[in-house]
From TrEMBL:
Residues 54-550 form the Amidohydrolase domain. PANTHER family: IMIDAZOLONEPROPIONASE, PROTEIN LONG AFTER FAR-RED 3. SUPFAM superfamilies: Composite domain of metallo-dependent hydrolases (SSF51338), Metallo-dependent hydrolases (SSF51556). One of its GO terms (molecular function) is hydrolase activity, acting on carbon-nitrogen (but not peptide) bonds. This is Amidohydrolase 3 domain-containing protein.
Length: 553
C-alpha cells in the first residue's frame, strides 16, 4: 500500500458511470468508512489496497450511483403490501368484488377491509349505482374502503359510508371533496378527495396506526426500493407515525437508505391528524443520521380525472361540470404565500402538489415573493408538473424551483387516457414538458409517486423519459414525443438532480471522492443499449454506505 489509509473495499474491473461531470467515467473505486476514497483507474485504486481490503472484481459489469426517488409515499406502499388487499389497476368491478370476497373469507375477523388500486378508467362506471350494489353484496357486513390509482379518490361500500356519517342528504365536505351521487341523489360510493378522507379518518379510529406498524411498513417499502436500486427517497406526505417509524428504524440500525420526509401542511388525501404547526415541532425529535424531515407538503389542487385540478383553461364540457369549470385551489393565494414564507423562515423546504397549470402559476408567483424577501436557499418543488403553461417554463430556472416530475406520466397509460378524456387536446400534446424544462436550465428530478404508480422501479420512468412510449408495451403510441430527453438527462434526473432537490448533493448523488458509497451494479450499461431496452434493466446489487443491502438471487 502506498497511501496512509487503506480501503475497506475496492470495486474494480467495472464500467463506472459516476454522474460526476468532472469525471464521468472510471473503472474502479475504493471505499473506507462507507465513503469513497478514490475513483479512477484500476491502478489508481490499487494503491489503496491493504492487508484486510476486500476486493470485488465485477468483470466488466456496469456501476452507477444509487438511484433516487424525489416523490413517493413509501409508508402507504408498505401498508398496502403488508396489511391490505391489493389488485391490479386494470381490474374491473367484478374482479375487484371477487377479490374483496376472497379477502374477507381469509380474514373473517377484520372489521374494515382496505384495498387498492382501482384504475381511473372506472370513474364513469363507479359514478353509477350498480357497482355499489355489487360491492355491498360481497361485503358480508364488513366496511370496505378501496383507493384509486391517484390515491386522491376512494370507493366505499354502504357500511363504510354509514360509519363515517355519509347519508343520502350529507353535504359535500369543505375544501373540494365530492360525494358522487346517482341520478336519484344517492351516494354511489365514489368519493373524491376530502369526501374519501371522511371515511379514512373513521377507519383510522377503529384501526389506529402505531409506530411499530409504521416502521414495519417502511421496512417493507425500503426492501422493495433496494431491489430496484434506490438508495435515497423523499416521502411526499409523511404523517407523524411515518416520521416516528423511520426514526425507530434508524435507532435500531435498520434504516439503510437516505430518507427525507415532507410534513403535511394540509390534507385532502390521507386523513392525517397532525398538520402544519402541530407537526413541525417533531422535525428535530424524529431526525436521525439517515432521516431528514426537512420538507413540508402542500396540496394546492386535486387531480384532473376528478375535475379537481386547477387549470387556466376550462375542462372539456361535461354534464356535471358544464363548459366553464376550471377546477380550484385548496387555499387562496394569500394563504399559500403565508405558508411558503413561514416555512422559509423556519428553514423548512416545501413541496407543492400542482396538477393543473393554474396551480403551478400560483406557486411560481408565491415563490417569487419569497425569493424577493431574501430567502434564496429554501428548496421549492412543484409536483407533478404534467401541465405547465409555456409562459411559465422559464420561471422554474429563474426562481430556482425544482420540477418534481412524478409519477411517470410522460408516456401513454391508463391515467393519461383518463386525462385525455377531460382536458383539451392541445394540452395533452404538450403534456409533461420535460425537455422544455431541462433546456431552460431547470432542475428536473424524477420520482415514482409510488404507489400511485404500482412499481417504484426507476428504470421504467427513465426509459419513458427518453422514448415517450410505454416501456411495458401495454399502451401504443407516444405522448408528446418532442418532449423526450437524452439518456444523460434522464439518468441525472434520478441521481444527481434529485440529490440537489433533496439537499443532499454534498454527500450523495454521484460517485465522487468523499461522498457516501451508494451504488448499484447493473446487468447492462445504460449508455450502451437502445433506450427501449432500459426498462428491463436488472439491478444485480445495491450498496449503501459501502454495505451490500441487496443482491439478486
Amino acid at each position: 500500500m502506498t497511501h496512509a489509509q487503506a480501503a475497506d473495499l475496492i470495486v474494480t474491473n467495472a464500467v463506472v458511470r459516476t454522474m460526476d461531470s468532472a469525471k464521468p467515467s472510471a473503472e474502479a473505486f475504493a471505499i473506507a468508512g462507507g465513503k469513497l476514497l478514490v475513483v479512477g483507474s484500476a491502478s489508481d485504486v490499487a494503491a489503496y489496497r491493504g492487508a484486510s481490503t476486500r476486493i470485488v472484481d465485477l468483470d466488466g459489469q456496469a456501476v452507477m450511483p444509487g438511484l433516487m426517488d424525489v416523490h413517493n409515499h413509501h409508508g402507504i406502499a408498505g401498508l398496502h403490501n403488508v396489511f391490505e388487499l391489493t389488485f391490479p389497476d386494470t381490474a374491473g368491478v367484478d374482479e375487484i368484488c371477487a377479490a374483496v370476497k376472497g379477502y374477507i373469507a381469509e380474514h373473517p375477523d377484520a372489521e374494515w377491509v382496505y384495498g387498492s388500486i382501482w384504475g381511473s378508467q372506472l370513474l364513469g362506471e363507479l359514478s353509477t349505482s350498480e357497482p355499489l350494489k355489487k360491492l355491498d353484496a360481497v361485503s358480508g357486513g364488513k366496511k370496505v374502503l378501496l383507493t384509486d390509482d391517484s390515491h386522491h379518490n376512494r370507493f366505499a361500500n354502504t357500511a363504510a359510508m354509514r360509519a363515517a356519517g355519509i347519508q343520502d342528504d350529507t353535504p359535500n365536505p369543505p375544501g373540494g371533496g365530492v360525494i358522487v351521487r346517482d341520478q336519484d341523489g344517492r351516494p354511489t360510493g365514489l368519493l373524491f378527495e376530502g369526501a374519501g378522507v371522511m371515511v379514512a379518518k373513521t377507519a383510522a379510529k377503529a384501526d389506529p396506526m402505531t409506530t411499530d406498524k409504521a416502521a414495519a411498513c417502511s421496512a417493507d417499502a425500503i426492501k422493495t426500493m433496494h431491489a430496484v436500486g434506490v438508495t435515497a427517497f423523499l416521502d411526499a406526505g409523511a404523517t407523524l407515525h411515518t416520521l416516528n417509524g423511520l426514526k425507530e428504524l434508524d435507532d435500531r440500525g435498520e434504516l439503510k437508505i437516505w430518507a427525507s420526509s415532507c410534513m403535511l401542511i394540509n390534507d385532502h388525501v390521507f386523513g392525517a391528524e397532525q398538520l402544519g404547526n402541530e407537526l413541525f415541532p417533531h422535525r428535530e425529535t424524529t431526525r436521525s443520521s439517515h432521516h431528514r424531515p426537512d420538507f413540508a407538503k402542500i396540496f394546492l389542487d386535486g387531480v384532473p380525472m376528478s375535475y379537481t385540478g386547477a387549470f387556466l383553461q376550462p375542462y372539456l364540457p361535461s354534464e356535471t361540470h358544464g363548459c366553464a369549470h376550471k377546477g380550484h385551489t385548496t387555499m387562496p393565494y394569500d394563504e399559500l404565500e403565508h405558508w411558503l414564507l413561514h416555512c422559509a423562515d423556519k428553514g423548512i423546504n416545501v413541496k407543492v402538489h400542482c396538477c393543473g397549470d393554474a396551480a403551478v402559476r400560483f406557486v411560481l408567483d408565491a415563490v417569487a415573493k419569497v425569493r424577493a424577501q431574501g430567502y434564496k436557499d429554501t428548496l421549492f418543488h412543484v409536483a407533478h408538473g404534467q401541465f405547465v403553461n409555456p409562459d411559465d417554463i422559464k420561471r422554474f430556472r429563474e426562481l430556482g424551483v425544482v420540477a418534481d416530475i412524478s409519477p411517470a406520466l410522460w408516456y401513454p397509460s391508463i391515467i393519461v387516457e383518463a386525462m385525455e378524456a377531460v382536458r383539451p387536446k392541445e394540452e395533452i400534446e404538450r403534456m409533461a414538458p420535460n425537455r422544455s424544462l431541462a433546456e431552460s436550465g431547470a432542475i428536473i428530478s424524477g420520482g415514482s409517486d409510488w404507489p400511485v404508480m404500482p412499481d417504484p422501479n426507476p428504470w421504467i420512468g427513465i426509459a419513458g423519459l427518453i422514448t415517450r412510449a410505454d416501456p411495458l408495451g401495454q399502451h401504443p403510441g407516444q405522448l408528446a414525443p418532442d418532449e423526450a430527453i437524452t439518456v444523460q438527462q434522464a439518468l441525472e434526473a434520478y441521481t444527481i438532480n434529485t440529490a440537489r432537490a433533496l439537499g443532499i448533493e454534498s454527500f450523495s448523488g454521484s460517485l465522487t471522492v468523499g461522498k457516501s458509497a451508494d451504488f448499484v451494479v447493473l446487468d447492462r450499461d445504460p449508455y450502451g443499449v437502445a433506450p427501449d431496452k432500459l426498462a428491463s434493466t436488472v439491478v444485480k446489487e445495491t450498496w449503501f454506505e459501502g454495505e451490500k443491502v441487496y443482491s439478486k438471487a
